[in-house]
Amino acid sequence: MLSPLEIPIPVVQKLDELNELIKRHPQYIPVPELSRFLGVNPDGLRASMEHGQCPFGFPWQKSPNGYRSFKVPTVPFYLWYTQGGPFKWQAEKEKDA
């Protein structure tokens, strides 16, 4: 049985994967790479953005012909995925110091 303070290995591995994704894409994360990370279909992720269901990404129409584009800024995605955890932990650490 795991200790209540021990982080399971799969969680550590996924956070390592998140850190690598952010190192590769510090400003914006390409939709195909993000969909691989999340384990979802890229078109499904785009549809979710179009319907306002993704708080970290946004779509726009680039031309009257319907050519669309999508942006996923790295920082909002990171904060959404981690629920701001690292910032909360840092604030608690500084408070206790």
Element layout with pairings:
Layout: H1 9-24, H2 31-38, H3 42-50, E1 58-61, E2 68-71, H4 74-82, H5 85-96
Antiparallel strand pairs: 1-2
Explain briefly what this protein structure is.
It is built from five helices and two strands; from the N terminus they run αααββαα. It has helices spanning about 10-25, 30-40, 40-50, 75-80, 85-95; strands spanning about 60, 70.
* Uncertain ranges: none
> Would you report the number of β strands?
2
Strand order of the largest sheet: 1-2
Biggest sheet architecture: 2 strands, antiparallel
Could you tell me the mean pLDDT? 88
- β-strand percent reads 5-15%
First-to-last CA distance = 32 Å
H and E order: HHHEEHH
Structural class by SSE content: mainly alpha
Shape: elongated
Number of helices: 5
Helix content: 55-70%
What's the gyration radius in Å?
17 Å
Please characterize this protein's 3D structure:
- The protein has 97 residues and is mainly α.
- The protein has a domain at 26-88.
- Helix content is 56%, strand content 8%.
- It has helices at residues 9-24, 31-38, 42-50, 74-82, 85-96, and strands at residues 58-61, 68-71.
- The chain has a two-stranded antiparallel sheet.
- A hairpin with a 6-residue loop joins β1 and β2.
- The relative contact order is 0.12.
- The model has no long low-confidence stretch (mean pLDDT 88).
